Known about the structure:
- By secondary structure, the protein is α+β, with helices and mostly antiparallel strands.
- The chain has three domains: 2-79, 3-Layer(aba) Sandwich (Rossmann fold); 101-152; 155-250, ATP-grasp fold, B domain (D-amino Acid Aminotransferase, Chain A, domain 1).
- 32% of the residues lie in helices and 29% in strands.
- It contains nine helices and 13 strands.
- The chain has a five-stranded antiparallel beta sheet with strand order 11-10-9-12-13.
- Helix 3 (58-66) runs antiparallel to helix 4.
- The radius of gyration is 19 Å and the shape is globular.
- The termini are close together.
- The mean pLDDT is 94.
Amino acid sequence: MKLWLVYDKFEAERNRRYIDFYFEKCKEKGVDLELVIVENGVDFSRLPHVAIVRTMNPNLSEKLEGMGVKVCNSSFISRIANDKWNTYEYLKSKGVRLVETFLVTDTFTPPYYPMVLKPCMGKGGRDVEIVNNYEEFSAYRKRVTEKTIAQRVVSHKGRDLRVYVVGNRIIKAMLRISETDFRSNFCLGGKAVEYTLSPEEVKEIESIISHFDISYAGLDFIFDEGKIIFNEMEDVVGARMLYTHTDIDIVDIYLNFLISHTNLT
């Protein structure tokens, strides 16, 4: 099997060790792996069987799909998951229970405070802030001009759940906790521990997964009144928590899934 691992230059430099995992595992499994850096140009004359696209580029994913390449995750997931407003609208249309969310337009005024503001295409907690009044909201909007959503603040701040999914199957749930910030992102210094899902939580998560065809992604949940509630999907999901705190080799699991679910003819 010929496999592409597609990155932009910045993220490839940040994730060198993670990329090395792929090369090590692919060598063990007899998979021909090539690292493709989008800024260097993509050679469409020698296509792979599978392209793992580790950058937010739905147009590239769609082009590869049109040329017969299996793209993971699909261009559909790339468009939905990498825009928080698209994610909200799509899952709301499916009847999924969600935090009350608004698209921030030039004429939008928060109906209440406090509210959480988030760039729709932000990652790693970038520019995610709580605003407590109109003055703070206005200052945020002057500083952050990209497409943004506003959400109700949930009861349990500084605590969320990352659920790793491969092939539409739950692999592991990790609880992220911050004692100093309402954002619990691991990359911002939040603590991470293994989490055992209850049968009710598994049922809810699987119902959300059923609306997608996920190759490998993270589903993030926040806690409100003691229950999990879907927050967002990480298409280009990181794995530092798993390799730091568990013995799960997610790259191995993912590659085994791709090998067993790829038609090479």
